[in-house]
């Protein structure tokens, strides 16, 4: 199927960029990257890290004009240890261990044994959450590109309410020019018919819907609706979020791509 | 005139230390078979360990363990699940160390527990390599009583005929008067002529396997074992093999207990493989309502996953969950699918399908499959973004001696048979109208 199609270069915005350059007049951009269990977006995240640190995206856009200003990058993960992205980025020619502008905050290891201990009251859990984000924010020096991976795990495992988590994410967004929130929750889990605010499904649904209302760009990796194919991995949908980007000249290049990742990790994109 | 091939090494000495032989020794000419070496004339160079030592040191300690082999796909150290077919399905030839696997089952059947038992049996067997002198593997079983380990399947010893033959051979090899007299009479009877002819035509030579397969089977001979589901593991596993951890109301206590076991074992044996097993996850008879809540189970697995990443060179985890109580759309299952590295889904056939397959394979009952095996996530590869979902492509059959997984195809029923059956069953089914257009 993909053999007859022309390979495409990935861009997210109409200025042919993946992460647009920042200026003082710009409003901050919030992007949501969501994935399904069968189609992990780790390859895309690795590319975004590469683009933010080096301005390039060698694997998915060889014609990309490099960014003039390289941004410091902060990666907060509730899902992976730092080695995971170090290995992935090495494939893209980025050695995260040697780059000073890259900071990895591992909230995955010992999350429920050290950062947010179990068996505490709701108020105490909220305190732990605030102090955890305080520590992260305290380490930020300049305006970085921030990635937050799998924050919704806090809603299903603790008493934290969606609004409290959003408040913490908003604090991060204010300090950053571009923020990407990586969601791993399957869309089938979202249920708006629930009314019990303590139900974890309600909390996740509430959090995701409120987060989408704050987003400027939504990126979704999903498997093919027609089933598995040997020469295609899934579809990559890029759409505009409800929030408007300032300056208004910058728009999201809404497109649907088909993509294929081979076993060596090379990615090919085709227009749908 | 000689029948010997040029490159063939002359046997007779049976010395495995040929690797260390110096060129001067080879120049002496071949050793005459059957002639014994003169005592005291053994060249010390032959037995010199200096040549063999670097070979052992080049391999990493962990991979040199007989229960670990490098993954076919990523070269990561990998451990067998106890089912060779499942190992193949996971593409790595097992589960890579530091990874976790969840087996889901969507029916009231209990096939998934067979896989978990095989996984445990394999661990126990690995621990008994070298008569248990070196502890290579240890199991941590969570939430089950110690009696659970008494029903583990034992290694497959062959069919009853093969076992009888083995016993006879063992008896024959014993030195006794009757055995020796039997050998002499047999030699006299045959006169050795058959053997000569057999030697000429190479009939006595064992069948040569392809070199790659031979190397693989020799190098990883203890890696994966076939288990007999009808046999119990004997002697049953002891505390040396398995640590049982009871479920506690607080998941932190549970995680700390497991962490302590792992760290203690690693201190004693740095290359040890720890297999963490949670059989029958969320079964109401084992897990209380508070232990079945997302606030308990999800932080537990999140913490266990972080434990695996801490001990990524030593620990693996396997669990099973029944999808009847917790469907794939349920919050717990969906979140667990996010957390786990590998997901296998067993989908037993419904009654109609089972009847159809039985009908199709009525003459070949060994081919009857019991359900589908769906692959949802493969450790490492799925995390990197590769599409590894395989729905309805494989089927499993749980026999006495093996849990087999093979590619699935809808069975074809013989037209003649079905036609004759139909005629017998519904004689009025044939239409009398002309259906030509």
TrEMBL record, chain A:
Q: Looking at the record's lineage, which domain of life comes first? A: Eukaryota
**Signal peptide feature range:** none
Q: In which pathway does it act?
A: tRNA modification; 5-methoxycarbonylmethyl-2-thiouridine-tRNA biosynthesis
Q: Looking at the UniProt record for this protein, which Gene Ontology cellular component terms does it annotate, in alphabetical order? A: elongator holoenzyme complex
* GO-annotated biological processes: tRNA wobble uridine modification
What protein family is recorded? Belongs to the ELP6 family.
Please state what the protein is called.
Elongator complex protein 6
Query: Per the UniProt entry, what species is this protein from, by scientific name?
Result: Scheffersomyces spartinae
Automatic annotation (TrEMBL), chain B:
> Which residue windows does the record flag with biased composition (Polar residues)?
419-437
CDD domains reported in the protein's UniProt record = Elp4
- Record's Gene3D superfamilies? P-loop containing nucleotide triphosphate hydrolases
Q: In which pathway does it act?
A: tRNA modification; 5-methoxycarbonylmethyl-2-thiouridine-tRNA biosynthesis
Q: Enumerate the residue ranges of region (Disordered).
A: 1-63, 416-437
**Record's keyword terms, sorted:** Cytoplasm, Nucleus, tRNA processing
- Give an example GO biological process: tRNA wobble uridine modification
Work out whether the entry's keyword set contains tRNA processing: yes
Q: Which domain of life is it from?
A: Eukaryota
Bias (Low complexity) occurs at: 48-63
Q: Name one GO cellular component term.
A: cytoplasm
Localization terms from the record:
Cytoplasm; Nucleus
Homology family: Belongs to the ELP4 family.
Protein name listed in UniProt: Elongator complex protein 4
Q: Which organism is it from?
A: Scheffersomyces spartinae
Taxonomic placement:
Eukaryota, Fungi, Dikarya, Ascomycota, Saccharomycotina
């Amino acid at each position: 199927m993909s053999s007859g199609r022309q390979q495409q270069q990935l861009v997210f915005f109409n200025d042919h960029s993946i992460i647009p350059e920042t200026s003082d007049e710009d409003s901050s951009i919030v992007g949501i990257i969501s994935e399904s269990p069968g189609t992990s977006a780790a390859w895309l995240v690795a590319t975004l890290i590469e683009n933010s640190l080096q301005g390039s995206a060698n694997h998915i856009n060889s014609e990309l004009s490099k960014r003039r200003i390289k941004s410091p990058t902060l990666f907060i993960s509730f899902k992976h240890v730092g080695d995971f992205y170090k290995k992935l980025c090495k494939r893209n020619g980025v050695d995260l261990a040697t780059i000073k502008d890259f900071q990895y905050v591992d909230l995955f290891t010992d999350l429920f044994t050290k950062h947010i201990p179990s068996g505490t009251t709701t108020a105490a859990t909220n305190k732990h959450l605030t102090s955890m984000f305080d520590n992260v924010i305290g380490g930020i020096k300049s305006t970085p590109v921030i990635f937050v991976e799998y924050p919704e795990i806090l809603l299903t495992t603790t008493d934290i309410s969606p609004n409290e988590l959003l408040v913490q994410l908003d604090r991060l967004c204010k300090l950053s020019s571009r923020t990407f929130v990586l969601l791993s929750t399957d869309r089938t889990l979202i249920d708006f018919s629930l009314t019990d605010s303590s139900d974890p499904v309600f909390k996740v649904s509430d959090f995701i819907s409120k987060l989408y209302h704050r987003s400027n760009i939504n990126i979704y990796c999903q498997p093919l609706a027609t089933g598995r194919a040997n020469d295609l991995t899934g579809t990559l949908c890029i759409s505009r979020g409800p929030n408007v980007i300032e300056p208004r000249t910058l728009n999201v290049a809404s497109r649907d791509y088909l993509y294929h990742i081979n076993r060596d990790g090379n990615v090919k994109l085709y227009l749908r | 005139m000689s029948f010997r091939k040029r490159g063939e090494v002359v046997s007779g000495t049976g010395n495995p230390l040929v690797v260390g032989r110096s060129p001067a020794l080879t120049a002496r000419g071949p050793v005459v078979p059957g002639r014994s070496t003169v005592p005291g004339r053994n060249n010390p160079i032959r037995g010199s360990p200096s040549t063999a030592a670097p070979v052992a040191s080049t391999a990493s300690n962990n991979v040199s363990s007989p229960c670990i082999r490098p993954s076919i796909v990523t070269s990561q150290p990998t451990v067998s699940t106890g089912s060779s077919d499942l190992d193949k399905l996971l593409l790595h030839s097992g589960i890579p160390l530091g990874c976790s696997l969840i087996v889901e089952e969507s029916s009231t059947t209990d096939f998934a527990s067979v896989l978990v038992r095989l996984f445990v049996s394999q661990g126990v067997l690995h621990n008994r390599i070298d008569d248990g002198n070196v502890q290579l593997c240890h199991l941590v079983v969570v939430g089950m009583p110690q009696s659970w380990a008494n029903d583990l399947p034992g290694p497959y010893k062959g069919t009853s005929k093969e076992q009888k033959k083995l016993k006879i051979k063992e008896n024959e090899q014993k030195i006794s008067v009757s055995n020796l007299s039997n050998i002499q009479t047999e030699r006299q009877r045959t006169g050795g002529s058959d053997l000569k002819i057999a030697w000429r035509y190479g009939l006595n030579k064992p069948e040569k396997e392809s070199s790659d397969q031979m190397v693989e089977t020799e190098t990883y001979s203890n890696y994966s074992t076939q288990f007999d589901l009808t046999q119990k593991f004997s002697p049953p596993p002891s505390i040396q093999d398995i640590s049982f951890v009871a479920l506690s109301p607080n998941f932190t206590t549970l995680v700390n207990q497991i962490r302590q076991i792992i760290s203690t074992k690693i201190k004693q044996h740095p290359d040890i493989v720890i297999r963490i097993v949670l059989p029958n996850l969320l079964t109401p008879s084992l897990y209380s309502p508070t232990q079945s809540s997302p606030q308990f189970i999800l932080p537990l697995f999140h913490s266990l996953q972080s434990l695996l990443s801490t001990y990524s060179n030593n620990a693996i985890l396997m669990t099973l969950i029944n999808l009847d109580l917790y469907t794939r759309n349920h919050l717990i299952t969906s979140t667990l699918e996010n957390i786990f590295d590998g997901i296998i889904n067993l989908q037993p056939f419904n009654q109609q399908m089972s009847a159809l397959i039985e009908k199709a394979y009525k003459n070949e009952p060994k081919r009857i499959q019991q359900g589908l095996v769906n692959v949802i996530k493969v450790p490492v590869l799925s995390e990197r973004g590769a599409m590894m979902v395989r729905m309805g492509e494989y089927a499993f059959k749980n026999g006495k001696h093996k849990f087999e997984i093979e590619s699935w195809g809808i069975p074809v029923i013989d037209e003649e048979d079905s036609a004759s059956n139909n005629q017998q069953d519904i004689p009025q089914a044939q239409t009398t109208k002309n259906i030509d257009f």
